[in-house]
Amino acid sequence: MIQTPYYLIDKSALRRNLEKIAQVRALSGAKVLLALKCFATWSVFDLMREYMDGTTSSSLFEVRLGRERFGGETQAYSVAWSDAEIDQAVSLADKIIFNSIGQLERFADKASGIARGLRLNPRVSVSGFDIADPARPFSRLGEHDVEKIASVLDRVDGFMIHNNCENEDFDLFDRLLGQIEERFGALFHKVRWISLGGGIHFTGAGYPIEKFCERLRRFSERFDVQVYLEPGEAAITETTTLEVTVLDTLFNGKHLAVVDSSIEAHMLDLLIYRESAHIAPNQGPHEYMVCGKSCLAGDVFGTFRFPRPLQVGDRLSIQDAAGYTMVKKNWFNGVQMPSIVIRELDGSIRPVREFSFADFQASLS
Ligand SMILES: *Cc1c(COP(=O)(O)O)cnc(C)c1O
């Protein structure tokens, strides 16, 4: 038996998403790059690279991980490159996207040997959260002024726009893309590739993949550009659980269960976005608030229903623990870091990483 806590990645579930990605590539002609900032667990890249064209990044380290562990096309993006990073980023990448005209002007010459792009900010977006909205007022994410962008077209051959976030509504995507075409269409005719970023939930159940692909193909033909998509969450959604064990139960107006994990350390986005975790099937007469073992008072996974009263030693599976989860885990409170375990396509279980006191100690000095 594998000691909890651990993240359990199910390769069969992953392959389901990847097959939809392959379908989108075939039907739309788009190239699809994995956004490493969402998911960078490289032990499953062997499967992912069969279905995706490469990776995109948000830092030098991600560029390097993409090049060394994933392969294919390595797209480099960062909100701001430093003088110390730029040469290595250019040497590792097939193409580099600058976030601003300032960065482009600063580093265009150093990057002249590879494809160069600029991030555009269309000032329209889908996001339920201000903190995650690239089009929020005063946003630093990309250039919006068409005239200014036109003045640097001699130094770029493509654009990147990322303005969707968990958008599962095709009509909304379609409308936003229409607004983007209206704003930037004249510029689009002058480049060779356009990345539409991530945040499109096209692997979700019921998403109209054929309509989506037709829209992408129409966009690509209208401007004569290679379209790219940069899914993070859509690539790995519903593939991974966080396996935990109940360590204690208490009653304080509600039944409480404390588990051997922590949202602050192991599922940080629940805290940032004030969301509840998911447990399936979440049915039965016994209700518990499932809590983490850190000392943060609000370290709560959520309130769930169970068929039987929870007891010390019971195992729980927290759903959907792949995206923005493993990449954000941290050593707060010195809580045992979850191991990483893979369920292979044949059903066998393979632990690929365990973390020890030495890792905790080595994370500081
Ligand atoms: C975050 C991000 C992505 C991936 O977004 P998902 O919502 O995980 O699909 C892709 N491209 C850029 C530029 C991003 O910032």
Automatic annotation (TrEMBL):
<comment type="function">
    <text>Catalyzes the decarboxylation of carboxynorspermidine and carboxyspermidine.</text>
</comment>
<dbReference type="Pfam" id="PF00278">
    <property type="entry name" value="Orn_DAP_Arg_deC"/>
</dbReference>
<keyword id="KW-0620">Polyamine biosynthesis</keyword>
<feature type="domain" description="Orn/DAP/Arg decarboxylase 2 C-terminal">
    <location>
        <begin position="238"/>
        <end position="321"/>
    </location>
</feature>
<comment type="subunit">
    <text>Homodimer.</text>
</comment>
<dbReference type="InterPro" id="IPR009006">
    <property type="entry name" value="Ala_racemase/Decarboxylase_C"/>
</dbReference>
<comment type="similarity">
    <text>Belongs to the Orn/Lys/Arg decarboxylase class-II family. NspC subfamily.</text>
</comment>
<keyword id="KW-0456">Lyase</keyword>
<dbReference type="InterPro" id="IPR022643">
    <property type="entry name" value="De-COase2_C"/>
</dbReference>
<keyword id="KW-0210">Decarboxylase</keyword>
<keyword id="KW-0963">Cytoplasm</keyword>
<keyword id="KW-0663">Pyridoxal phosphate</keyword>
<protein>
    <recommendedName>
        <fullName>Carboxynorspermidine/carboxyspermidine decarboxylase</fullName>
        <ecNumber>4.1.1.96</ecNumber>
    </recommendedName>
</protein>
<dbReference type="GO" id="GO:0016829">
    <property type="term" value="F:lyase activity"/>
</dbReference>
<dbReference type="InterPro" id="IPR005730">
    <property type="entry name" value="Nsp_de-COase"/>
</dbReference>
<keyword id="KW-0745">Spermidine biosynthesis</keyword>
<dbReference type="InterPro" id="IPR029066">
    <property type="entry name" value="PLP-binding_barrel"/>
</dbReference>
